[in-house]
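stage 2 :: seqdesign
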């Protein structure tokens, strides 16, 4: 049903969200402002989205009967996490319209799929090679050379599922076998290390009639593979690459017949933008849009999947910046609550663990 023409869902309709993290929570906050009800399907009753949902359905992502029953109670379904089995989306799509469609998820959940897809569309990527066993990993390292990063093909996020290889690092067969096992013994990509000038992302909303809107592109800073900070507008290093990156993004969204918000991460390099990865969903580097743009990424995702017109994506002030609160950064909340310029968002997670995204702060510039 995912490619069926979309009709407008009136306020009061029920939106289903698969996944119960902070992205789902902020989608619900935007949806409820527009008068929609949201049901959440996920594994954690105390998850950030479960806490604010009209209804929470506990279930595993491979429990097809539970997913089907969930979908039957919704008017449209979306997802906030891309590591779902394709079969889950198939089951949902049989019951109810699903956006973004299953093809977007199939591409977005595998680094190999997304890089092959984007290369076919003419986009540039860091050199990469796939390995499906330890012998192929040895060959892939040989082909790509060092420095390099070995990345799990699937399920990696926030720097998890990655191993860096230093320049000149020589690995014998036993060391390669060990790295293969450390990454779980599943398919990996070996990627050449990119000496980028900056990192940025594009956030795009596409509606059912093919209309597209971009927000200003945030320049992003990662530490240990985790997003720390996003700022708009980005610097000159980023600005020069926006037209080429947008042209590629348009092709990606059109080829996927995408409905909803799509995020694409790029490295800004001397010779042009290099595609790094994409997420078929709202994205951490777009959280600043809640206060910083006329319409947030969350509202436009809801608008797109409900067949409503997209809202204006322009900046409200001259710019905005967003700082993630990771792990014990959250202990600063009393100061932040008293900081008049800080728009504080806390996700309601009980335990502050290292590397865990607990909240974020946006400031208008
Ligand atoms: P990823 O999960 O692929 O987005 O990687 C997380 C972060 O690690 C990126 O945002 C970069 O800061 C860094 N990184 C990933 N791949 C590369 C690469 N090929 N070269 C240099 N840095 C990288």
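stage 2 :: out
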């Amino acid at each position: 049903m995912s490619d069926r023409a979309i009709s407008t869902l009136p306020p009061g309709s029920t939106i289903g969200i698969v996944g119960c993290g902070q992205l789902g929570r902020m989608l619900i906050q935007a949806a409820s402002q527009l008068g929609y009800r949201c049901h959440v399907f996920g594994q954690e009753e105390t998850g950030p989205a479960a806490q604010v949902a009209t209804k929470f359905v506990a279930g595993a992502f491979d429990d097809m009967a539970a997913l089907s029953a969930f979908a039957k109670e919704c008017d449209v379904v979306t997802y906030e996490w891309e590591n779902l089995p394709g079969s889950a989306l198939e089951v949902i799509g049989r019951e109810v319209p699903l956006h973004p469609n299953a093809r977007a998820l199939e591409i977005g959940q595998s680094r190999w799929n997304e890089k092959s897809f984007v290369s076919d569309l003419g986009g540039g990527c860091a050199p990469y090679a796939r390995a499906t066993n330890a012998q192929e990993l040895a060959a892939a390292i040989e082909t790509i050379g060092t420095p390099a990063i070995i990345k799990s093909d699937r399920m990696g996020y926030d720097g998890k599922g990655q191993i860096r290889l230093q320049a000149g690092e020589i690995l014998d067969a036993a060391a390669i076998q060990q790295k293969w096992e450390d990454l779980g013994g599943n398919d990996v990509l070996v990627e050449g290390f990119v000496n980028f000038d900056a990192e940025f992302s594009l956030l795009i909303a596409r509606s059912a009639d093919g209309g597209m809107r971009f927000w200003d592109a945030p320049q992003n800073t990662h530490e240990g593979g985790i997003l720390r900070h996003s700022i708009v507008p980005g610097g000159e290093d980023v600005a020069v690459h926006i037209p080429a990156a947008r042209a590629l993004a348009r092709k990606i969204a059109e080829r996927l017949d995408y409905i909803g918000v799509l995020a694409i991460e790029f490295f800004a390099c001397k010779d042009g933008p290099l595609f790094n990865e994409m997420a078929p969903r709202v994205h951490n580097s777009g959280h600043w849009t809640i206060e910083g743009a006329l319409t947030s990424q969350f509202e436009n995702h809801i608008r797109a999947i409900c067949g409503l017109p997209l809202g204006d994506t322009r900046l409200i002030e001259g710019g905005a910046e967003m700082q993630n609160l990771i792990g014990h950064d959250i202990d600063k909340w009393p100061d932040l609550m008293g900081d008049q310029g800080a728009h504080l968002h806390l996700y309601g997670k009980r335990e502050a663990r290292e590397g865990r995204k607990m909240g974020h702060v946006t400031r208008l510039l």
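stage 3 :: structure notes
- DSSP finds twelve helices and 17 strands in the chain.
- The pocket of adenosine monophosphate is lined by residues 126, 149, 156, 159, 191, 193-194, 199, 222, 225, 265, 276-277 (CB under 6 Å).
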